[in-house]
Design brief:
Layout (H helix, E strand, L loop, with lengths): L34 E3 L5 E3 H18 L1
Antiparallel strand pairs: 1-2
Amino acid sequence: WKGKKMVKVDRFFPSSKKCCKCGRVKKELKLSERVYHCVCGNKMDRDCNAAINIREEARRMLTA
């Protein structure tokens, strides 16, 4: 971590519910739903989708 910045994303940021492709946020997403599906056609592992959203939110915070 030496020389790196750490960014803390808000705990209520909808990382799992937000589509990393189009930005649409689902109202509900059950923990049992392991694959994220969006009406835009995005279909991927929900944890990968969340990780991309967290990365992009951190980048946004660093450039704001």
